[in-house]
């Protein structure tokens, strides 16, 4: 099977400055892959290159094994694109617009009606077939945008910040639809909001200043920063000095007469040693919780490292 998306040494320069620098990646499965980066990190530049809207300065992009630069028409059959602003025509009805995009995608004339019907069904807009796009809410316009991106059943659907500007109800609906689309297609979705990526994505690619600074599964991202403190609830609170006697403890902060936060070095055996010390010394352990690192802290940590 061909790799759905392969990027080799991709770089792009606008006049004098590099917006994207030496990006390498491969995507082989369906599901949502998140492209996360702060404003100006290079997400749109990268997406515009992948979708053939912008020619890269250096490097190669292969869609379903086809070199995008050498064979753009062939490669583009396998990509659907939802830009930041859905490319809808306000004065057309949903059917007229989707039929037009199906023609642009070179779907044979006798198959256009079925392709439009299927895309509308998937995106939950069949009941708006004859409505002018200008009379649809933002959330439904977004659905029409998604329908045009999948009308030719591409392997890869690229969505640039697809949830920006939606209200909370529309957001929930849009996420549901994106998950459904991703059960059959590979979706590469950009956002500068970590919680959005966290909710939707199986994999995360973080870019800063045009370079990849993290690329792995969402689980690996969650585990990236190991917890470095433990919250203890003790019935018999000992002296802080006794807690610091446990090998690996670096600091202890008394929160109440029964709660203490203990900081430790990177050491996988520390929580066990601490629990043993509680039992052996009769501190009467009620609870021991590893403090989870907040997602935003991981994001900050990775971004800071990339600037060092
Ligand atoms: N047409 C252009 N000409 C010159 N510089 C550009 C152009 N488009 C983008 N840039 C610059 O390239 C860098 C990357 O921009 P890009 O739009 O790709 O980032 P982004 O991650 O998509 O940001 P945002 O979330 O704000 O859209 C930025 O420094 C931006 O100012």
Automatic annotation (TrEMBL):
<feature type="domain" description="ABC transporter">
    <location>
        <begin position="5"/>
        <end position="234"/>
    </location>
</feature>
<protein>
    <submittedName>
        <fullName>ABC-2 type transport system ATP-binding protein</fullName>
    </submittedName>
</protein>
<keyword id="KW-0813">Transport</keyword>
<dbReference type="InterPro" id="IPR003593">
    <property type="entry name" value="AAA+_ATPase"/>
</dbReference>
<dbReference type="GO" id="GO:0016887">
    <property type="term" value="F:ATP hydrolysis activity"/>
</dbReference>
<dbReference type="GO" id="GO:0005524">
    <property type="term" value="F:ATP binding"/>
</dbReference>
<comment type="similarity">
    <text>Belongs to the ABC transporter superfamily.</text>
</comment>
<dbReference type="Pfam" id="PF00005">
    <property type="entry name" value="ABC_tran"/>
</dbReference>
<dbReference type="InterPro" id="IPR027417">
    <property type="entry name" value="P-loop_NTPase"/>
</dbReference>
<keyword id="KW-0067">ATP-binding</keyword>
<dbReference type="InterPro" id="IPR003439">
    <property type="entry name" value="ABC_transporter-like_ATP-bd"/>
</dbReference>
<dbReference type="InterPro" id="IPR050763">
    <property type="entry name" value="ABC_transporter_ATP-binding"/>
</dbReference>
<keyword id="KW-0536">Nodulation</keyword>
<keyword id="KW-0547">Nucleotide-binding</keyword>
